[in-house]
Specification:
heterodimer, A: 106 residues, 72% helix, 0% strand, B: mainly alpha, Four Helix Bundle (Hemerythrin (Met), subunit A), two-stranded parallel ribbon
Chain lengths: 106, 209
């Protein structure tokens, strides 16, 4: 199997795109801080903050880390495994509520 | 100039020299990032588990100054990501002087983050009497998990500043390629990415108005 490596100029997205992503990240952070100020119930806060953080993570990975412009094979090799592991973590979370229920009445 | 590698293989999954069409340094950094992401995920999951399991979990972060302080820290890190991406952009256009300046700006923003974070730590230790082993609320797990997560993250930021310092002096002297700056950028963006989860889960979830 023959292979060769060659260098070519590849510029990717321009400065305005990076600036827009940065503004979007700041805006999403502002919404998170506002949610903390409003003091929503814990579970609603947790869900909303995690959702916003995932959107921010996607923005950073796709544009700042350039993954959007890499080959799909790189994404498929790295990320599905990580997502499965993260979902496996969540299997333990209901146990936290069991511990709360086990506390003797004060 | 960013290196784009093309490999002549019959199919993408046949292997060969570069099945991902990316340099080995960049691919190595991606592998490190994924493994480090799982480390931080495990720590943040542990924090969330403890937080949910303890109804007496303390909320020591007053909106002013703690949340405002940590929001400024978030702004510093997000801005450092923008300056880092500008450094990579400048290197892709073979402008080494501009790349050096943008990397220095990134390091300055990172140093600001570390300075603010240490101030926040001192405030928590001296005023709220929180240590990794005890606190006034009788929930030692709070201090243990808080200092472990934020300490590990701060260590990553400090290592990142040193890493960028090495890259910066080499770039200005005409050494290293655009790919080296891009790989350093990947690490720096990852550090920023981790903070995007630490900030809401650790600070905002324990905010007190």
């Amino acid at each position: 199997m023959s292979s060769h490596v060659e260098e070519t100029v590849h510029h990717g997205p321009g400065v305005p795109v990076f600036a827009k992503v940065w503004v979007a990240l700041l805006a999403l952070t502002g919404i998170e801080v506002l949610l903390a100020y409003l003091q929503a119930p814990v579970l609603i806060m947790l869900t909303a903050l995690l959702g916003l953080s995932i959107i921010k993570a996607v923005l950073i990975i796709a544009w700042f880390m350039h993954l959007k412009f890499e080959r799909l094979s790189l994404f498929l090799t790295l990320f599905p495994m990580m997502i499965v592991v993260l979902l496996l973590f969540l299997m333990f979370l209901p146990d936290a509520y069991r511990i709360v229920g086990m506390r003797p009445p004060s | 100039m960013q290196t784009e590698i093309t490999a002549t293989t019959e199919s993408l999954w046949d292997g060969g020299r570069s099945p991902f069409l990316t340099g080995s340094k960049k691919f190595g950094m991606w592998l490190f990032i994924i493994s480090d992401a799982l480390t931080f995920s495990a720590l943040l999951f542990t924090y969330t588990y403890c937080r949910v399991a303890n109804p007496d979990w303390p909320t020591p972060f007053h909106f002013s100054p703690s949340i405002i302080f940590s929001s400024v820290m978030t702004f510093a890190l997000l801005t450092s990501s923008l300056t880092m991406v500008m450094a990579v952009h400048a290197m892709n256009h073979e402008d080494r002087k501009a790349a050096g300046r943008w990397i220095l700006a990134t390091m300055a923003a990172g140093a600001t983050f570390v300075g603010l974070h240490l101030t926040e730590w001192m405030n928590l230790i001296n005023k709220e009497h929180v240590t990794p082993f005890s606190n006034d609320w009788g929930v030692p797990l709070f201090g243990a998990t808080f200092f472990t997560i934020t300490g590990l993250h701060m260590t990553h930021v400090i290592i990142g500043i040193i890493y960028l310092g090495i890259i910066c002096q080499a770039v200005v002297r005409g050494k290293f390629k655009a790919e080296d700056v891009e790989v350093a950028g990947l690490y720096w963006h990852f550090v920023d990415l981790v903070w995007m989860f630490v900030f809401p889960l650790v600070y905002l979830m324990s905010a007190k108005i």
